[in-house]
Queue: 3 jobs
Job 1
Amino acid sequence: MKTEKYKSYKYFHFEDVFVEIIIANNYSFKEAKRIAKAETKAILKNDFIYLIFDNRYSIIKNDDRKLYEFEVCTKKLPPPININEMTCDQKKELILYDEYMCGPDDYQIVSWSITEAYENLKSLYPHMTHFDLSSLRYRIEKENSL
């Protein structure tokens, strides 16, 4: 009996730039989920993404295009609000305020390489030498059988 294999994806972001990365493949569902749920650090450098997870590291290079995909949020959000100055009722209203929420239509896939993503962020933050990406979510997908 053939054992099904799975891959783990993690979704990261820095500001309005998002990237989905395959962090593991060819694992059992249980192991793929364990890896995906592990705390993962991702650092965007000028031509690679450095991943640290599950007591090991991995480097995703520009040429590894099948392992990553960038997208950007196209929705212009209102300016940040100081919630410390808001009443409890105002905070409850804010949670439901559509202007601060993004949906699937607010994101656009871009064909950026890692270098292009780095250069775009570097143009906005010239003092930074790398970008620590925050993890948002994960997903598990069954590998395609050949």
Note: Strands lie at 6-14, 17-27, 40-44, 48-53, 56-61, 68-73, 107-110, 131-142.
Job 2
Amino acid sequence: LVLTPGGTSRQARHLADPYLDLGANRLLLTKLDEIPGLAIIPALTRAIPLPLSYLSLGPQIPDDLEHANSRRLARLALNEEPLSDPFRVPA
């Protein structure tokens, strides 16, 4: 299930419910580079009972896709790491 973390966790759950009924089994959060902060992510992962598998942290697909990692998420949420490498040259 691919979701953009705009809005509230309740809205996201409302959008996710039909796909959960169809058997969605993983969560990919996209457009994280377009939201002001990452504080919504824990609320989303509590509201939607799927493992968070991937994150989209920039506009270059597939280069900006990465496996979800709790340590990386914590560092992003605390602004200890940038969303993407600003010096990376797109392929």
Note: The chain has a mean pLDDT of 85.
Job 3
Amino acid sequence: MRKRNKLLAMLLCTVMTAVLAGCSSSSETPGGSGDNNADKTKTEDSFDKGSGAAASGVKGVIDGLDVPSLEGRTIGVAVLGTDHEFDLKAYQGQIDRIEELGGKAVAVDGERNDQKHISDIENMITQKPDAIIKQLGDADVYEPVMKKISDAGIPLFTVDLVSQYSICNSTSDNYLVGEELARNMYEDLGGKGRIAVFNGFYGVRVCGIRYDMMKYVAKDYPNIEFIEPELQDVITGAAEDARKKTLNLLTKEKEIDAIWLAWDTPCVGVAQACKEAGRDDIKIYAVDGSSTVLELVADPESAMYGDMAQNPYQIGQAAVDECARYLAGEEVPSTVYSAPVYVNKVNWENAVKELGIEIGKE
């Protein structure tokens, strides 16, 4: 009986071994499931891990990491205006990056008219793009229409515009911008002097931050005095308006050591006014790094002394990078920062090389 049971057990083992061998053989047959798995692996290699979006082969301008493709996506780009060099370059950075990633850009230019721009954005919402990037503007003015974008279920990204409805804002570190510009200005003046301030756009968040940091750093320089009342710069005809206001200021105030501005387009007029008045002793400081103003920084005869140069093209590109990642299902930060470069009459040659730009000079 025991011998019979032993023979039965051996027979069962033989049968099971044969069955398992057959299964293994069929799974390795050419054209079978083994090759299907290999094909699947090859296909998955062409996608960003964890995103399900096709890889673009493009690296992020800020972090150097892979950026997913925007193929088949439509991205709305809403810019308040393109007459200012910063705005134009940031806008162009977005358009070029969307196309580089295989997407389609639909753009609107508000031409510095808030009501027109709001209407343009409302119309864009009805077109239901995959995402909208809103560039610059007064946060209070545009918050209602940005809420409409969010309520419509359209992902919103911003450039130099903080909003509770923005998934990610691409900008320079304006706290650093304001602090570094102010510190250099106060040190250049030897820690004492009278400064005139243009402050027409405090409601634009980035300008407000730069202004606040300028005043905050001044607490460490008790011998710095700010001339009152502050001057109000404008958008339309910024340079000529600033020239007239500066000439008027120079007539009233004989003791002025420096003039500060939150952006640099008006500086062309401010520098011209100082030249007309023979006040080459005054130093002008501003933010942005537009090519015309950097040429004035490089000019030893100009009162334009220091400019915190931003990289607007990169800022625009970075907004698109984060948009692409978000649409691919990736986590994105609430803010991405591009590094500014301080340019003055001492370091301008090296600084513009660092920025990767060229400026004309005699």
Note: The CA atoms of residues 298 and 345 lie 6 Å apart.
